[in-house]
Amino acid sequence: MAEKVTSLQVAERAGVSQSAVSRVFTPGASASKATVEKVRKAAEELGYRPNVLARAMVSGKSRIIGLVVAYLDNYFYPEALEILSNALQEQGYHVLVFMTSQTSGNIDGVVEEILDYQVDGIVTASVAMSSDLSQRCLQAGVPVVHFNRFESTKGVSSVTSDNYEGGRELARFLVAGGHKKIGYITGWEGASTQRDREAGFCDSLADLGQTLFAREVGDFDADRARAAANAMFNVAPENRPDAVFVANDHMAFAVMDELRFGLDLKIPEDVSVVGFDDVPPAAWRAYDLTTMRQRANLMVEETVDALLDHIKNPSTATPRKVAISTPLIVRGSARVPDIWPPQEG
Amino acid sequence: MAEKVTSLQVAERAGVSQSAVSRVFTPGASASKATVEKVRKAAEELGYRPNVLARAMVSGKSRIIGLVVAYLDNYFYPEALEILSNALQEQGYHVLVFMTSQTSGNIDGVVEEILDYQVDGIVTASVAMSSDLSQRCLQAGVPVVHFNRFESTKGVSSVTSDNYEGGRELARFLVAGGHKKIGYITGWEGASTQRDREAGFCDSLADLGQTLFAREVGDFDADRARAAANAMFNVAPENRPDAVFVANDHMAFAVMDELRFGLDLKIPEDVSVVGFDDVPPAAWRAYDLTTMRQRANLMVEETVDALLDHIKNPSTATPRKVAISTPLIVRGSARVPDIWPPQEG
DNA sequence: GTGAAAGCGCTAACAA
DNA sequence: TTGTTAGCGCTTTCAC
Questions:
Q1: B29 in contact with A, Cβ within 8 Å
Q2: What's the CA A141/C1' D8 distance, rounded, in angstroms?
């Protein structure tokens, strides 16, 4: 077992001081060409690599970002995680993952654990933490950015889609498609994403002279969504919506299955279905779901941007509340208006 | 910005030595009831929490596990990641994620980076690393376990499904179902999972007096699988397979879509389709895919078990090669034999 | 440009 | 049981 090689050993072999070795491996440091060469050679021969943890201790920068994430069964998150992790890696950071569940209210405990690792920043994906805790992070000088969850807490940044406007657009689309009895299956009602999507949808509906024809709670859960679909559609034909907005794709797939296979309804002939997220299966032919695209790449970009800004300029950086616009992806699960997009003027 | 609270400050406030504080926060240490109380109180008041990194430096144990993972678009991995992360958390470890791509052969570089974090162990999910690198890890005293990828390298553990036996079972199922022209769409041919599934499938076919009727390469990629399906099925009817085993579910969905919507074939009437993994969408009614279940929970259990064994008993632990059996999940995408499971005797 | 020296916050002997 | 002491491997003044 070839034991750990330290900078001191490299120094001895290169015939320089230990601090010289440190400088060679420190990006912004100065060393003569000769020294650099000697050191690199010795390091190479010994298989030396700097100990990130030791560096973190003295510099106070761990280059670790803590990520709190709740549920990976919504396929938006694996996608986002992949992009986020890659983006951070490119900046020389790495992601320490902390799983938690939305319901098991131990999120605060998880965040404490994260802080113990002296992370340089925290990203929470779709989980809410107490504003108490947010304060603790701020006080500890650890910037927090909420991904896909708007948080009004002062001082923390959040990056989401423009869920409100996305909801509005969906309503316009459905109404333009001639639908008169429009239903909505909600996400988890504690989530800002859910609230914003619903508010935008209903406001827009109102603008167009309609109101929600039916509403059921889905909690962002496939099983509950299925039940919601049943409650909403397993009724006399005249009480059946002719279109339904399901608060995210994950639920929408379950709803479509229930509609087609459970209730023998045709999509979009009997009922139009639209979702939100545009996760990969939305594009699968069996679903072909019309949905609002959450642009994970842009969201991540903004997240990383905000995070690094706070890390690098602790005093001057100002919290951001970013809302990314969501293009409507028109596919086959909902009747398409004759005129779409709407004519100008 | 309430600056970092150190154990020294707690010590002063509690009127004890700094090491007393350390002991109170070290699981297996001894301290009198009185001391414990004083220290806990002081720590509480100051909001003290031990610095994991400092602890790691001196103890040599970081309680960080490095996870190298390639592609999260196969939904088996998010699932596995979630279970793994939770299992490790329960043992007081955390997961540092490193993304890489199968193709971009920089896996070795990634592993070097991992080592820099002084991780206590490494899990690679479905990626191969050079045996050179495996050696480096062993030499550094960092145990490696390969998840879902068999590696013959001496000294490293691997946990997979019993892919060979799974392949065999699928062949038995298809043949018992009366299929005579059986095709196979491969995964990435460099993967042990792919090789084992195919070997088992073909060996079993041979035992039953058949051979592969058609074979196309799918590379575990949805697009390539679609193309493969087209190449295999867009032919004169008599040259068309009556069943196809697709090397994983992720590809199977694309194949089913292509068969139904591209070629207007009925599943399972015109062609039976079976997959491997049993990811959540396999159970969605629109696919209802008959497939071999990879039991992620058991696989993770074995992975964690092996890893901790190596970490805790560096000298005595012996590398393990675990293969978890895979139950066949019979759904509607393939014709079901009249007699199934086969009668004994 | 370079080396000496002082720690970062903690654990682990060692004495007491 | 407790306090004292010596580092873990590194970055960073500070003289030279």
A1: no
A2: 26
CA angle A334–A339–A344, rounded 5-degree value: 130
pLDDT of residue A95 exceeding 70, the answer is: yes
- Whole-angstrom distance, CA of residue B268 vs CA of residue A266: 21
- Strand C contact at CB of residue B2, distance < 7 A: no
For residues B307 and A208, give the distance between their C-alpha atoms in angstroms, rounded to a whole number. Answer: 60
Shortest Cα distance from B32 to chain A (angstroms)? 25
Chain Cα centroid distance, residue A274? 20
A235-274 residues touching B, CB cutoff 8 A: 253-254, 256-257, 260-261
Strand C within 7 A of B25 CB: yes
pLDDT confidence tier of residue A176, bands split at 50, 70 and 90? very high
User: What is the average pLDDT across A227-238?
Assistant: 97
Q: How many CB atoms lie within 10 A of CB B138?
A: 19
B133-179: pLDDT as tens digits: 888 888 888 999 999 999 888 888 999 999 999 999 999 999 999 99
* Confidence class for position A85, pLDDT limits 50, 70, 90: very high
Tell me the per-residue pLDDT of B182-191, one tens digit each, with 9 for 90 and over: 999 999 999 9
Nearest CB to B78: which of A72, A89, A254?
A72
CATH number of B163-293: 3.40.50.2300
B203: closest CA among B170, B249, B162? B170
CATH no. for A59-161+295-324: 3.40.50.2300
Please report the residues numbered 158 through 217 in chain B whose beta carbons come closer than 8 angstroms to any beta carbon of chain A.
none
Q: Which of residues 55-114 of A touch strand C (CB under 7 A)?
A: 57-58
**Are B253 and A49 a contacting pair at CB < 8 A?**
no
> Contact B24/B36 with Cβ under 8 angstroms?
yes
Q: Which of B 140-159 lie inside 8 A of A, CB atoms?
A: 140-141
Is A46 part of the contact surface with chain B (CB cutoff 8 Å)? no
State the Cα–Cα distance between residues A14 and A30, nearest whole angstrom: 17
Q: Which residue of B has its CA nearest to A47?
A: B136
Tell me the nt nearest to A48, Cα to C1': D9
Q: Which two tokens stand for residue A204?
A: 């827009």
CB of A54 within 8 Å of a chain B CB? The answer is: yes
Name the segment(s) of chain B with CATH classification 3.40.50.2300: 59-161+295-324, 163-293
pTM, to two decimals: 0.93
Looking at chain B, which runs of residues are DSSP E strands? 64-69, 94-99, 121-125, 144-147, 157-161, 182-186, 214-217, 243-246, 272-277, 290-293, 321-324, 328-329
Q: Kindly state whether B285 is in contact with chain A, defined as any CB-CB distance less than 8 angstroms.
A: yes
Name every chain B residue with its beta carbon within 8 A of the beta carbon of A4. 140
Q: Please name the residue of chain A whose CA is at the shortest distance from the CA of residue B58.
A: A54
Size of interface A-B (CB pairs under 8 A): 138
Determine the average pLDDT of the residues in B312-328: 94
What's the Å distance between residue B7 CA and nucleotide D13 C1'? 25
**Residue-wise pLDDT tens digits, B169-212:** 999 999 999 999 999 999 999 999 999 999 999 999 999 999 99
Angle between helices B76-90 and B296-312 (to 10 degrees): 40
pLDDT in tens, A22-77: 999 998 878 899 999 999 999 999 999 999 999 999 999 999 999 999 888 899 99
Q: Helices A52-59 and B52-59 meet at what angle, rounded to 10? A: 130
- The mean pLDDT value for A264-293 works out to 98
Report the pLDDT averaged over residues A130-135: 79
Note whether B275 and B256 are within 8 A (CB).
Answer: no
Which helix (H) or strand (E) segment holds residue A89: the answer is: helix A76-90
